[in-house]
Amino acid sequence: MFNSNHLESPIQRICHPLLSAKKVELLVKRDDLLHPTIQGNKWRKLKHNLLELKRRKNDALLTFGGPFSNHVYATAMASKLFNIPAHIIVRGPQLDLQNPTLRLAKACGVHLHAVTRLEYRQRYDNKYLEDLANQYPNTYIVPEGGSNQFALQGCQELAQSLPESDYVCCAVGSGGTLAGLLNGIPKSTQLLGFCVLKGAEYLQAEVLKLNPTAATCNNWQLLHDFHDGGYGKFGAPLWDFCQMMKRTHNLPLEPIYTGKMMFGLWQLIEKGYFPANSKIVAIHTGGLQGLDGLRYRKLI
């Protein structure tokens, strides 16, 4: 039986000479600690989708993801935990079952379907989704990354759980977390989205598509200068920063999402971007399982 109740994740205060010198307060919302097995924003996004699946009395779940995807990992965990059969269309063309993410998914009993990159590109195409719905009857389809209207509800709840602040910062991949946060933060709070993909100017339109009210809000912006080379790419300074935060502040980071956001935020603080006495809340959206994938590929 699916039970969506869980305790709220903790807030961690970061104390550092830089923050004192710039007179800013930095809090981290530790959503990586939100759920024992389904971390961070992936739980926020899946929660209301799973409730909708239950409401519709669907028998199974189908979604999409890359071979090292946090969404694939979280969906597999949810499938096992709540006994919901799941099909995952994986960007292939082949499955490497030594990959820790796919190995976990397989261990959870998820049905993995590798497709060519060409077919994978059709994942938002209505005709393709219609064919999948016919192929897998009474199956609830969740988009790649989990970003849809039900995901926004979970991210709005995240926003409503945050302490009062001048700025809220989050990493942006598909735009769903930011679009949902916008519904829950006060108009007086600035929302900064750190894009982890290179050339992701299209995300502005994605956010507006997911949340049309964003068009009338002037308290959010996407920052495109902190992708560190593109999705999944990172240099030594970023990885050194992640290791420093773990060592000095006991804050574990991966260099794909939250690490990029925190490193970008740190650089903005160094440059004096934030007025004195600003209170900043940075959201740790989880994804720490990605470290296993980086180790597997010998990238760290």
UniProtKB/TrEMBL annotation:
The active site is at residue 69. Pfam families: PALP. The keyword RNA-binding does not apply. SUPFAM superfamilies: Tryptophan synthase beta subunit-like PLP-dependent enzymes. Keywords: Pyridoxal phosphate. It comes from the Bacteria. One of its GO terms (molecular function) is D-cysteine desulfhydrase activity. The modification N6-(pyridoxal phosphate)lysine is found at residue 42. Its cofactor is pyridoxal 5'-phosphate. Residues 21-286 form the Tryptophan synthase beta chain-like PALP domain. The keyword Cell division does not apply. Belongs to the ACC deaminase/D-cysteine desulfhydrase family. This is 1-aminocyclopropane-1-carboxylate deaminase. The lineage of its organism: Bacteria, Pseudomonadati, Pseudomonadota, Gammaproteobacteria, Alteromonadales.
